[in-house]
C-alpha cells in the first residue's frame, strides 16, 4: 500500500507511527507533508519515511490522509485537486469539514472518506470510526478498512454518527487519562509512591476493561460483584455519586460532542 499524510502533529504522528508499526505500509511508501514548525522533518529523521517534495508525487497513492486542524484543509484540498490518481482515496482525520464539502472541493468524481481515530492507534490499540462518500466502492472501503483496521479496530458508521463516535473514542483517552492521574494522585496522598501508583492503576484499568469485554457482563453487575456488604467499595461508590461523577462524565461527553 502507498499512502500519504498531510500533518505530523498529534494524530498525524500517531497515525504514522501506527502504520509503520503494523507494517501495512513500508517507510519508502509513506509520504508525509508537514507544516512550518519542522515536526514532520524531526519525525522523518526518527522513522525514515519520505517527505513530500511535490504534490504531483501523490498521484499513485492508494490513500491520502489529512491530519491537520480544519482551518488548513481548504488550502490542502486546492493543492490536491488535479494531483490525485483515479483510485486515490482522500481520507480526512479532522473533525470537519463534512464529506459533502470535501467532495465539492475535490470534484464530483473524487473518492472521499472521513475517519476519527484516537491516539492509541500508535500502539495498534485504536478505535476508529469511518464514513464514506458516495463514490467509494467496496474495493475502496476494503483499502481504507485494511489501513485503519491495522491500527486496532475500525468501524464504518453513517456520517451523522461519526461525531459522537469520535467524541467517545477520540476524546475519551484524555478523559481516561484524567481519571488515571486522579487515581494516582489519590494513591500518593495515601502513601504509595508515584511509580507504584501508576503500575497499580494502569494494570487495574486494563484488567477491568478486559473483564468487561471478555465476560460481556453489564458494568453494573461487575460493579456489584466488587461491592461487598458494608465494605470499602460501596463507600467509594457512594462518594463518587455524592460528587456527581456520572454527571461529570455525561457532561464531558456532551460538551465535547463533535458536530
Ligand atoms: N489529537 C487527537 O487525538 C485527534 C485529533 N483529530 C483531529 O486531527 C486534526 C489534527 O489534530 P492534532 O493532531 O491534535 O493537531 P496538531 O496541531 O497536533 O497537528 C496538526 C499538524 O498539522 C500541520 N500542518 C499545518 N498546516 C499544514 C499544511 N498546510 N500541510 C501539512 N501539515 C500542516 C501542523 O504542522 P506545524 O505545526 O508545523 O504547522 C501540525 O503538526 C484535527 O482536525 C483534530 O480534530 C482527530 C482524532 C483524534
Ligand atoms: O480535541 C479535538 O478536537 C480532537 C477531536 C478528537 C480528539 N481530539
Automatic annotation (TrEMBL):
Chain positions recorded as NADPH binding sites: 54
Pathway: Amino-acid biosynthesis; L-proline biosynthesis; L-proline from L-glutamate 5-semialdehyde: step 1/1
Every Pyrroline-5-carboxylate reductase dimerisation domain range: 159-256
Source taxon at top rank: Bacteria
Record carries keyword Amino-acid biosynthesis: yes
Keyword terms, alphabetized: Amino-acid biosynthesis, Cytoplasm, NADP, Oxidoreductase, Proline biosynthesis
Amino acids binding NADP(+): 67-70
Molecular function in Gene Ontology: pyrroline-5-carboxylate reductase activity
The enzyme's E.C. designation: 1.5.1.2
Entry-linked InterPro entries: 6-PGluconate_DH-like_C_sf, NAD(P)-bd_dom_sf, P5C_Rdtase_cat_N, P5CR-like_CS, P5CR_dimer, Pyrroline-COOH_reductase
Any one GO cellular component localisation term in the record: cytoplasm
Stretches assigned to the Pyrroline-5-carboxylate reductase catalytic N-terminal domain: 2-94
One Pfam family it belongs to: F420_oxidored
Localisation: Cytoplasm
Example of a GO biological process term: L-proline biosynthetic process
Function statement: Catalyzes the reduction of 1-pyrroline-5-carboxylate (PCA) to L-proline.
Annotated PANTHER family: PYRROLINE-5-CARBOXYLATE REDUCTASE, PYRROLINE-5-CARBOXYLATE REDUCTASE 3
Cross-referenced HAMAP family: P5C_reductase (MF_01925)
Protein known as: Pyrroline-5-carboxylate reductase
Source taxonomy: Bacteria, Bacillati, Bacillota, Bacilli, Lactobacillales
